[in-house]
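The passage that follows is intended for readers who have already worked through the single-chain material. We present the inputs for a multi-component assembly, then the predicted structure in tokenized form, and finally a short commentary. You are encouraged to pause after the input and sketch how you expect the pieces to fit together before reading on.
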Amino acid sequence: MLRIDAAGVHYRHLNEQIRETVRAGETVLVLDNVNGQRYIGTGLESDQVRITIHGVPGNDLAAFMSGPAITVWGNAQDGVSNTMNSGTVVVHGGAGDVLGYGMRGGKLFIRGDVGYRVGIHMKEYKDLVPVLMVGGRAGAFFGEYMAGGRLILLGLDRPAGSPLTGDYLGTGMHGGVIYLRGRPEEHTLGREVKMFDLDEVDWAFLNPLLDEFCRYYDRDPGRLRAAEFRKLVPVSHRPYGLLYTP
Amino acid sequence: MRNYLPPEYIVHIDQDRCRRCGECVRTCAFGTLRFEHGAWRQAMSVFQHGRDDLERVFDRIRDNVPDRVAADNKKCVQCHYCVAHCPEGAISIQPNPLAYRGNHHWEPHHLKNIWLQAETGGMVLTGSGNDKAYFSYFDHMVLDACQVTNPSIDPLREPMELRTYLGSLPDALEFESGPEGPVLKTRLAPSVRLDTPLVFPAMSYGAISLNAQKALAKAAVSCGILMNTGEGGMHEDLYPYAHRMVVQVASGRFGVNPGYLRRGAVVEIKIGQGAKPGIGGHLPGEKVDEGVSQTRMIPVGSDALSPAPHHDIYSIEDLSQLIFALKEATEYTKPVSVKIAAVHNVAAIASGIARAGADIITIDGFRGGTGATPLAIRDHVGIPIEMALAAVDDRLRREGIRNRVSLVASGGIRHSGDVAKAIALGADAVAIGTAALIAMGCRLCQKCYTGNCNWGIATQKPELTARLDPDRAAENLANLIRGWSLELKEILGALGLNSVESLRGSRLRLRGVGLSDADLQVLGIRNAGVGA
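Having made your guess, compare it with the prediction:
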């Protein structure tokens, strides 16, 4: 195990140190006093590496990442798991905007609320199915242009009367599934999605993930499942097929 | 309304020459040509009743009547595949002279599109680049040459340097003394060497066929230049050429993973494209076959939608974030390029991009091509590359940051003369897309979006893509690059220069012919007849 004190270290040096450490064969890294350093884990390729972050990592945490597992003891900022390939990121706090943009594999767990434009253009291919799970609420454009993968929004601990998501939920969605614990307000739904109840296939997929979520954040899975779940799927895989004169 | 549309072209089959070999009937992907059984048809039209009984009779007649090739003129796109491949030279195609009533304001294409849209309510799609009669600044600029008082250089006998490096240059060089003399102290940014100042621009696997991409990649390697994946990922057949490839990251992030980023020579963020500034791309599901699916990493048959903006880039600061994310992911070993369309405010935007940390800026003018775009965008949005290039080069110089980026200009570059003029206006290198496609056989029929390209270039249909031999096409491309490079050397020699570097941004060597004062001012050149 290697501990790195990130206090006052520029991101370029911090990430260089991380990469060199990983190259030297180290698999367990603990970063202390992280305070806004960007690009931690960006482009990192290894299935063995475990990084624990104490503090608040900066934007583009785990961008283009392939394989590593990152745990953040704190909040995260924007762009977590940007175009991520595989691996796991667990954030013990809230996170900012544009999480999981173009994400094509791996898992991202956020304990609390997230900002705008989360899960945009997530996509899947064969056994690469990205999962982005949010414990709290989400801002507008959740799952916009979504082309694949699974977005799960639990809406836990939200003040009474506060909406599950902002507007334009699933706008332009043409693949994948959005699972919602609770009912979104009708006016927030994008035109390209339809709401359904969950079937057995959905639960078979969702159950292990809910258990995983509860393990990370010490929640009671029974109580989590007790609430009403709905799913959003695209009306069409080709929402824009009829825009053109043949 | 569609039924009333007159054919744009008339296909004439010389029946005396035609020996009914069926080559054209088999090969036209638009289904224009077919065998017709004259006697059978004629007879059928006489008998309106009892067709079923008669059919058997006429089947027998048909078997005994020689076929003839007939054309459904309405389907012809004038791509000339049949003309070029008819062994008897029996096919000719002409514009339909009587298609539309003459009118200088309401031109045929206006009428045609209105009728099409009146029927479908959709947008009119097109491919290739803006074909409208906008003023060409290239055609109104001329290059200088040496006469008497300063000697020209003969490139046949004297060395002539076309080598060009793309990448960021430092503001100054610092040296420290070492035991064997001064040692460079400044850390240089990564750069890429081009043997001649030409590159192939972004054309994705999906928009064009894998064979077309292979041809471009092979030619790029053999000529020491670059080709560009476009936003479609990199097919594994292209890995051997990856060291001469620009890997593109666009709003859809198709096929982007750490391996993809590391494999390429340059990483390019695509913001815009000259043929469709400000809008995204839709690769229709029909074109997403097994190969495209693997490379883009999306399911077979699903639409590949590239949103208009990157949803994580709403500002220069956001762009900077992605630039450095890519630099981090490639450990600062590769230049990062940003491609934008030439638009009104291009100079300020380019300045922002240079300050955001890009090493290369690619500017695509409004003549730039595409696999598919709404006609209304292609023909009416964006500005000429000549103007954009001059404005950007000027702005970066005035701000003292021209060294921080290399400029690549593209959008309708037709010959080495355009290349030389673009370099004199400030380009480090010039990207040639449409010209490269033409070198592979493209006839500019502009039907790329249909996926029916008879020449095997802009299609994914296996029977069509098989028509393009990547080795032969690569040879054609390499020949074109060689030809233009030789011409560039001649032009440089005539200018009395022995290195393309000396021409870069040397606008004193350009003169305008028939341009307005405002044009001359933006281009930063003087009028013909005005001396040095």
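Commentary: Chain B has a mean pLDDT of 92. Residues 470-494 of chain B form the longest helix (25 residues). How closely did your sketch match?
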